[in-house]
């Protein structure tokens, strides 16, 4: 039961965005930058963004050597290069909108730990550098001196090689989303939390959005930006959710490395946070079927595997305790590309960031905004 005042003041908009993560907020930012007088509403089902935007590892990356080589096998050279360029441009666009200081962005570089050196691997790295040169105008991947492995404290029997990429960085995911919220709210965008969208009805002159089974909002155009949860609205898209499980250690007595690290085609990732703490996530490839879910919970199989890799590979000579664990939901497509399209006359979809939301979220959002302007 809405009052006359509520219907007049809170239910009618030019644009409604479903999802308050990085993409949803960035769509709102693009809309109000282009149309400052437009009325924009973001609907979020959770208290915080529900997918991965505030649950990720805070990497500003575009792909590791083994990951990009796997992408070439899956989708070809041209598609891989298009993805990398989109990610790189997206990072620059994000940094242009939100200052490095506000989101604690540091272009500290990143390393991939190579656990098994395949045949002609160094030639494959050179091949990647040649492919990527037109985008970055210089060499991207550098094989680090072997003593760097010992310097970082990794297990030298397991870590066979380190490959450095100076173009990647890290940021504080919570501060990034907070800064984006502040940015759009200062421009008049409204954000309502606890709003579970149940249904859309697309009429010729606009869209009715039913929330919590009882309240209807109206907008001329709607953008759906709920990534791995898009299946609750549209089941025909080739989008599979992918759960990412993460842990953080308690402060360690000493931490020999700082920066971003990946291994196993990017399925595992870790970095330093806080005061000598390690944030470590991944392992989805241990159980693809089980991790193809939107259920936000940890599982012993994955968490125990992460703990074992901390013990054996990352900090083999240190005692440690786990401070906290959590999970986030990503979304993946077979061709590694996001889905950006109008699904009805007045509703656009922008989902499936394939685990690269920080990198491509801003450019994906710009494309969605262009579809509904």
TrEMBL record:
Entry's InterPro entries? FAD-dep_OxRdtase, FAD/NAD-bd_sf
Cite the FAD dependent oxidoreductase domain residue spans from the record.
14-371
Where, if anywhere, are coiled coils annotated? none
Q: Which GO terms describe its cellular component?
A: cytoplasm
Q: Which Gene3D superfamilies match?
A: D-Amino Acid Oxidase, subunit A, domain 2, FAD/NAD(P)-binding domain
Protein name stated in the entry: FAD dependent oxidoreductase
The scientific name of the source species is Raineya orbicola
Organism taxonomic ancestry = Bacteria, Pseudomonadati, Bacteroidota, Cytophagia, Cytophagales
